[in-house]
Amino acid sequence: MPYSPTPDLQTVVREIAEEMRARPDRGEVATYIPELARVDAGAFGLVVIDADGTVAAGGDADVAFSIQSISKVFTLTLALGMVGDRLWRRVGREPSGSPFNSIVQLERERGIPRNPFINAGAIAVTDVILSGHQPREALGEILRFMQFVAEDPSITIDEAVAASELRTGFRNMALANYMKSYGVIDNPVDFTLGVYFHHCAIAMTCRQLAMAGRFLAHSGRSPSTGYSVVSAERARRINAVMLTCGHYDGSGEFAYRVGLPGKSGVGGGILAVAPGRASIAVWSPGLDASGNSHLGRIALETLTKRLGWSIF
Ligand code: DON
Q: Is residue 189 within 8 Å of 173, Cβ to Cβ?
């Protein structure tokens, strides 16, 4: 058999970043949050951090972008830490097969969102984190958790993005009010949405995001600090929800092509987890029809193929 060396991680990451930068098909930047429409569609960043903490970075690895729905992985983690499995009384854990901002299932399912990653589900999870706190305290809790798992206290919220969504987020307002009518939202809708819009507006680089995902890749523990963020069982379960629901109605396609748990955001980021191996963050602002990063998905597909990292 011909000798085929394991490809060097940094070389693979750099090559993929170059290949993606050269592609003309970039998808469409989200415009329904006006502030996101201003982002350069030509940007591309990729960071892989392996079990030893080796960082392989390519392209715009250190440019901050709006993490949007990727924040929902971390709010899910926090809410499970606060109320444990009782969370699943408020929100399901089945794929929705519907767009991220769909309203149609909520009526049939009596205000209980299908999963914690569609907007309705994430708003319900944010409401759990908010309970018993002031919005500012809940938001501080979320931001500090992000800084803790990313091991970087400099992470902040992009206030312009949060304000932009506050002005235009009528669909989310409808979802929240509808859930409130079923008693699924405990707090004033404005408070819950305020916290939700702000945690979606957290700005992070690929490097910071890949750091933040490491506990999910390593059985709930940060390999660098040794801190246990969640139990191994919980990390496994969060990864399972990412695999089945992390890309909304594009989740099947993502699992088919990439073969890793992943969570996308309309800012064009994707956090992907290769269990036991690595945490991966990619960013390319142009989206596909499901609202997931077009080149981000292609880059991850290329990466898992070249490295043999699909979980299947
Ligand atoms: O609520 C929204 O619509 C946005 N703040 C987040 C949506 C999102 O990121 C969907 N992901 N691809």
A: yes
**ipTM for the assembly:** 0.98
- Ligand 1, from 119, 196, 294: best to mutate by most atoms within 8 Å of Cβ? 119
Express each pLDDT in 41-95 by its tens digit.
999 999 999 999 999 999 999 999 999 999 999 999 999 999 999 999 999 999 9
Q: Which residue has the tokens 């970087």?
A: 152
Tell me the catalytic residues. Answer: 69, 72, 196, 248, 266
**Angle 135-150/189-200 helices, nearest 10 degrees?**
20
Stated pTM of the model:
0.97
Ligand-binding site membership of 248 (annotated): yes
Q: What top-level class would CATH report for the domain 9-68+204-306?
A: alpha beta
CATH fold for the domain made of 69-200: Beta-lactamase (3.40.710)
Q: Is 266 annotated as a binding residue?
A: yes
